[in-house]
Design a protein that fits this description.
Blueprint (H helix, E strand, L loop, with lengths): L2 H13 L6 H16 L7 E5 L6 H8 L6 E3 L2 E3 L2 E5 L6 H11 L10 H14 L4 E5 L14 H13 L3 E6 L3 H7 L1 H6 E6 L8 H17 L11 H11 L3 H17 L7 H11 L18 H10 L14 H8 L3
Parallel strand pairs: 1-6, 1-7, 4-5, 5-6
Antiparallel strand pairs: 2-3
Helix pairs in contact: 1-11, 4-5, 4-6, 10-11, 10-13, 11-12
Amino acid sequence: MQIDEVDQALVKKVSCTFVPTEACTDAKESFDILLALGYAAGGLCLLICGESGVGKSTLLRWLTQKLIAVRTETGWIRPAIFVEIPTAPTAIAICEALLTALGDPRPSAGTRPQKFRRLREQLVEQQVRLVVLDDLQHVVDRESGRIIFDASEAIKQILIEHPMSVVCAGLADSRRVVDSNEQLKRRHMSTISLKRFDWNKNKSKLSFIAVLAAFARSLSEFEFPDLEDERVALRFYLGSGGIMDFVFKIFLLATWFALKAKKKTVGMKEFSKAWKVGLLHSEGVEDPFTMKLEQGDELARRVEAAKKINLPAPRPPSKGKAGSRLREIGL
């Protein structure tokens, strides 16, 4: 096996490791209802919110893993399509993203009415029952905090002309998009809030340790420290802030470093290197895999510092002073 094949197999193993939390179980129950009753109800909407890196995209893959596209003699049948909302969303950009998900060979071809007509036809032909809209927060303008009307209206128009269920995922601003869009709000049945793990909450801490143990089981060809030991698990928490994406990167890089060194043992040395290489956001935070774990106030301080890892930068104040003043007085 070539080294690139080894790398690909490793990435697949790490990325497929998934431990359902209580929020994931709630999402599965709502998702099953959405699939079972969505068509009869004219379409339902499930919203999955959470900060960056907590596992929204992984949850989406887990929920939709059985909704596989099938090619028939007459063409494709796609029970679900997956679309990432563009960072600068317009009606045209969203339409083209949907056409791409439907396999259109030339999503940019034609005028706006022609694109939307093709989109309607393909949604019907391919019997699409569900559309997954990821990164829905992009429909909110970052500077003004206002909903981008053109993009929101495009989503509304599509759902009017082809009633189907929707799973939306994104940051906290995604709630505002759903609330401001008549078609999404009318379909809205549930909001699932995914949160980073919290070491100070026992249930959340135990879930975090279970995730580490799941990675060890998934990567059974490697030897790891006892990841269910609370002192060992704490090091991972201090280095990741309880964010799943960072845990994933630490394991991916550490096992990759071991492979390159032709080793099957992954210890604190490999985890330390992985943390330093993969988590540049943590500059100024002491390496959790080599530090001496103190007790008492010093440990509490480090746990609190970990909770601030990857927090979003504060949004700049709106430039529209007149508009802000009108909002203040209720107009």
